[in-house]
Known about the structure:
This protein has helices at 31-37, 64-74, 87-99, 115-127, 133-139, 145-157, 161-164, 166-169, 196-204, 219-222, 224-230; strands spanning 5-8, 13-18, 40-45, 81-85, 103-107, 183-187, 208-211. It is of the alpha/beta class. The protein has a seven-stranded mixed beta sheet. Helix 9 links the parallel strand 6 (183-187) and strand 7. The two termini are 29 Å apart. The model has no long low-confidence stretch (mean pLDDT 94).
Amino acid sequence: MHLHTTTWGSGERVALLVHGIMADHRTWRRVGPALAERGYRVIAVDLRGHGASGRAAGPEGYTPEEYADDLVETLPGGAELAIGHSLGALALATAVERLAPRRAVYSDPAWHLPAEEASLRAELFVQAKRLTREHIRVFNPRWAEEDLDIEIDTVGLWDERSAHALTAFADRDLWPAKPVVPSLVTLADPSMLVTADHARMLAERGFELRTVAGAGHTIHRDDFDGFITALEGWI
């Protein structure tokens, strides 16, 4: 599936941005322009089932492999930088060998979901369709007003069948065996997806890890300045 994309900047270097579940390219509203100011042409996708991109025929069409194939079909290979958040980090890691960016950043990646949590998380995600702006503010007290508005809109557009698909690949070993390209993992504090043991495992496998103190799962929205600081040396 060819995905909808949004571009910031016109620099010679290319950066790719891949959002997480229930979001779309607008989650990067500050990151995209910040990278463009650093000389990048920044391309952000809407994953299948999200934003202005197409929908899968059914839940079985929302797998890491399908997400990855879409990225390869849509995005240029050999980019200078690729950043994926949560589900987007899983999709990016699955596609990274074929996309072959020079560097990859995985932000609080969803590389493992215990089976016993998958159904519960799926139901919680679906219930997000009914959340009000004030509910979202309670869950994300550090978000800017514009991000609250964007979240309401993106969740409304999102195909909730992709949440039910999480149970199909829960408990699969999706941890990357090694970084295919030089790779940074940025972590929330604490991360609900990457435990301390997982972090040690990733470090042993050759990933660099940096934690953004006090940040929630969507680090770039919770603490934009902290997120950009964590990328020093990588952007």
